[in-house]
TrEMBL record:
<dbReference type="InterPro" id="IPR006143">
    <property type="entry name" value="RND_pump_MFP"/>
</dbReference>
<keyword id="KW-1133">Transmembrane helix</keyword>
<protein>
    <submittedName>
        <fullName>Efflux RND transporter periplasmic adaptor subunit</fullName>
    </submittedName>
</protein>
<dbReference type="InterPro" id="IPR058790">
    <property type="entry name" value="BSH_CusB"/>
</dbReference>
<feature type="transmembrane region" description="Helical">
    <location>
        <begin position="25"/>
        <end position="47"/>
    </location>
</feature>
<comment type="similarity">
    <text>Belongs to the membrane fusion protein (MFP) (TC 8.A.1) family.</text>
</comment>
<dbReference type="InterPro" id="IPR050739">
    <property type="entry name" value="MFP"/>
</dbReference>
<keyword id="KW-0472">Membrane</keyword>
<keyword id="KW-0812">Transmembrane</keyword>
<dbReference type="Pfam" id="PF25919">
    <property type="entry name" value="BSH_CusB"/>
</dbReference>
<feature type="domain" description="CusB-like barrel-sandwich hybrid">
    <location>
        <begin position="68"/>
        <end position="214"/>
    </location>
</feature>
Length: 354
């Protein structure tokens, strides 16, 4: 009879069962596993994150995709560029001509006529001023009536009004000439022609009609993330963000940032005060100084999709599981500077008049 411990001898039924060795090993493994899981839940840290999806954008408005529009109405006579061409600031894009080919010649003739009218009005006013001086002298000598002197003054005023009207007409003609002289549409900045409105070359275009689309090649990039409104209340500028760009191989563990691979760092630059039409809030993320720079514009272009995780407080794994099961918001801890400021600011006390 095999040796049995004293506590087994007092339980003959248990001694008769004699569980297999494998069963006892499995039981011990389950017990150890439960203890390890409990230790992980209470001792292993977990970084809370607020996940969001977005796209790459340009920080400077001039670095964003721009529409090149027609400055004057007419039709496109010639294109100077094609899709995909690189252009410099001031380089011609298209030439627009008016429907009337003789418009510029007629405007030039009209301007010459207005100049002649101005010259005639100036000469007439000069003569009228001489008449006013002569009439005033004769009136002083008693050789002319006051009515003649007043009529000469009225004539000078009429000539002055005609001269002002002629000069205003000259200004209108010059404005029209300047607008028509701007028939060559030029690139507003350096970039690449993304697309050309081919329909504009076959039809009449109005002032402001889109001719082409220009995309800058070296913009200062940011990331626009759309975050759930439940988490937006605890997100503050300066918070670190982990980014996974579309087309870039990456492995992300949101709770353990050190394990992630192919992830790039950023920080929260600003948060929109109001939500988008979808109910999500836009969070602008900029590159994190001192960290690995983002991929070049050849790999991550404007408009590319991005997945981001805004890092928040560090809690235990068990607390994070409990929070997610109950659908609670992220942990919020007031920064030290804010808490000091709140403690230093006393509540206002109403003064009681005696």
């Amino acid at each position: 009879m095999p040796f049995q411990p004293d506590h087994i001898r007092h339980f003959p039924t248990l001694a008769g069962i004699r569980p297999p060795r494998a069963t006892r090993v499995i039981a011990w493994l389950i017990a150890i596993g439960i203890a390890v899981v409990i230790a992980i839940l209470f001792l292993v840290p977990w970084v809370q994150t607020s996940a969001g999806a977005g796209q790459v954008a340009a920080l400077d408005p001039e670095d964003r995709v721009q529409d090149i529009t027609a400055l004057v109405p007419g039709r496109v006579e010639r294109w100077y560029v094609r899709d995909g061409d690189r252009v410099r600031r001031g380089q011609p894009i298209a030439r627009i001509v008016d429907n009337d080919p003789n418009l510029l010649a007629r405007l030039a003739a009209e301007r010459a006529q207005v100049l002649a009218e101005i010259a005639a009005a100036e000469q007439a006013m000069a003569v009228s001023q001489i008449d006013v001086g002569r009439s005033g002298q004769l009136l002083a000598e008693g050789l002319a009536a006051r009515r003649d002197y007043e009529a000469a003054q009225i004539k000078v005023a009429d000539q002055r009004a005609k001269l002002a009207e002629a000069r205003a007409k000259l200004s209108r003609v010059d404005v029209t000439l300047n607008r028509q002289s701007a028939q060559t549409v030029r690139a507003p900045r350096d970039g690449r022609i993304q697309s050309i409105n081919a329909a504009a070359g076959a039809t009449l275009v109005a002032a402001g009609a889109q001719l082409a689309t220009l995309a800058p090649e070296t913009p200062v990039r940011i990331v626009e993330l759309l975050v759930d409104g439940r988490d937006i209340a605890v997100i503050r500028p300066g918070r670190p963000v982990r980014l996974a760009f579309e087309g870039w191989p990456a492995v992300q563990f949101s709770g353990w940032p050190s394990v992630a691979h192919g992830i790039f760092d950023g920080r929260v630059r600003s948060i929109d005060p109001s939500a988008q039409m979808t109910g999500l809030f836009r969070v602008i993320v900029e590159p994190m100084p001192g960290k690995l720079p983002w991929p070049s514009a050849d790999y991550v272009r404007l408009g590319g999709k991005v997945r981001g995780w805004i890092q928040m407080e560090t809690v235990s794994v068990g607390y994070e599981l409990w929070r997610q099961l109950n659908d609670f918001p992220l942990e919020f801890r007031r920064p030290a500077d804010e808490s000091k400021g709140a403690a230093a600011a006393p509540e206002p006390v109403a003064k009681v008049k005696k």
